[in-house]
């Protein structure tokens, strides 16, 4: 039995949820998101609560029960508050800057790395060593953060590279004489 799916999704004020057939649409101040509901689950709207229930007791229906509830919760939170991932850059000469619709990264290569900022995503560099990525879709925000981190991942000896703000790098001891 799903521990996540048992609880309803609370819809805050300013967010509207519509269920039409197999489509669920969520609208809020940050935009609109849409989800195609699978046949294994049943989604109902009761006031400001969205309930998700499996249609039968098969394993795929029980698996999609919690997954669908989590997706709906992320959509509701995304259109009302949004999601933010913060990255830190460590290393001498490593820096980032937002220029128009491009994130420009100097990461110790012979060239600068230019990353185009997709639609619906906002990036800010308050300091040259900090990147803030925000948007309404949790999956896309996390994917972009992972792609930027992959340009120069943190290394364990000096800790240089791009890392998540909450990430701790396990440091290794260098060579001994």
UniProtKB/TrEMBL annotation:
A GO cellular component annotation in the UniProt record: ribosome
Pfam family of the protein (one): Ribosomal_L6
Nuclease in keyword set: no
Residues covered by the Large ribosomal subunit protein uL6 alpha-beta domain: 11-82, 91-164
Keywords, alphabetical: Ribonucleoprotein, Ribosomal protein, RNA-binding, rRNA-binding
HAMAP family for this protein: Ribosomal_uL6_B
UniProt similarity note: Belongs to the universal ribosomal protein uL6 family.
Function: This protein binds to the 23S rRNA, and is important in its secondary structure. It is located near the subunit interface in the base of the L7/L12 stalk, and near the tRNA binding site of the peptidyltransferase center.
Quaternary structure, from the entry: Part of the 50S ribosomal subunit.
NCBIfam families to which the protein is assigned, alphabetical: L6_bact
Protein name stated in the entry: Large ribosomal subunit protein uL6
The organism of origin for this protein: Phaeospirillum tilakii
Encoding gene per record: rplF
